[in-house]
Task: inverse folding
């Protein structure tokens, strides 16, 4: 089966999670990281999941699932070990034309969640189309060593440089070679080595003497790596 790959903008949008166990808690946490509003439906919560409450963007309905719980939802995740309940959630989501994921039951899903690795704005997603989630996880783990935390700094720098270049008011055709020159440069290596003077040198060499870290208002950070099973 071929899935259509996509990254969803869930900021300010409602996602419903059915279930109160540890897996449900992980789903709630990842949705909150994406800026979603979460409706959590479960009569009881695992301690780790309960620790996410209270949260301004989480509405907890401490009762059994009801079809009306999907009202206004953009997507639904059912994370229970009850087959009948999972099927009821999936059927109601399908009836409402809302994308649904039933954890570990791909035949009930209209979308699946890939194994993912985050480095700041970089997100690498790996999927086997539901054929081998463990394989996807191992592939993601293999990527962890290839894409270190310096990628977070690197993409923040590239974003700042892109905004600075566009603010100069030149035609897009004139800017495109500059963006590719930055991408082909050794900015990443210099950042990983902590060589900020070298980063300044690269920026000025490509974008002009008036552009450097100070002009971009950029400072180096050390963000923690984020990975999702």
Result:
């Amino acid at each position: 089966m071929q899935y259509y790959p996509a990254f969803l903008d869930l900021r300010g949008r409602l996602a419903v999670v059915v279930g109160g166990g540890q897996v449900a808690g992980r789903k709630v946490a990842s949705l909150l990281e994406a800026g979603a509003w979460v409706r959590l439906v479960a009569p009881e919560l695992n301690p780790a999941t309960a620790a996410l409450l209270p949260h301004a963007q989480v509405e907890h309905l401490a009762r059994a699932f009801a079809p009306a719980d999907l009202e206004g939802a953009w997507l639904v995740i059912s994370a229970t070990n009850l087959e009948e309940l999972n099927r009821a959630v999936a059927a109601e989501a399908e009836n409402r034309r809302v994308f649904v994921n039933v954890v570990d039951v791909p035949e009930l899903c209209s979308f699946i969640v890939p194994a993912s690795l985050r480095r700041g704005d970089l997100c690498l997603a790996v999927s086997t189309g539901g054929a081998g989630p463990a394989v996807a996880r191992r592939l993601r783990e293999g990527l962890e060593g290839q894409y270190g935390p310096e990628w977070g700094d690197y993409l923040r720098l590239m974003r700042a440089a892109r905004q600075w270049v566009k603010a100069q008011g030149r035609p897009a055709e004139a800017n495109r070679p500059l963006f590719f020159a930055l991408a082909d440069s050794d900015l990443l290596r210099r950042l990983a080595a902590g060589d900020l003077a070298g980063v300044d040198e690269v920026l000025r060499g490509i974008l002009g003497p008036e552009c450097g870290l100070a002009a971009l208002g950029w400072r180096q950070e050390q963000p923690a790596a984020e990975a999702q099973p």
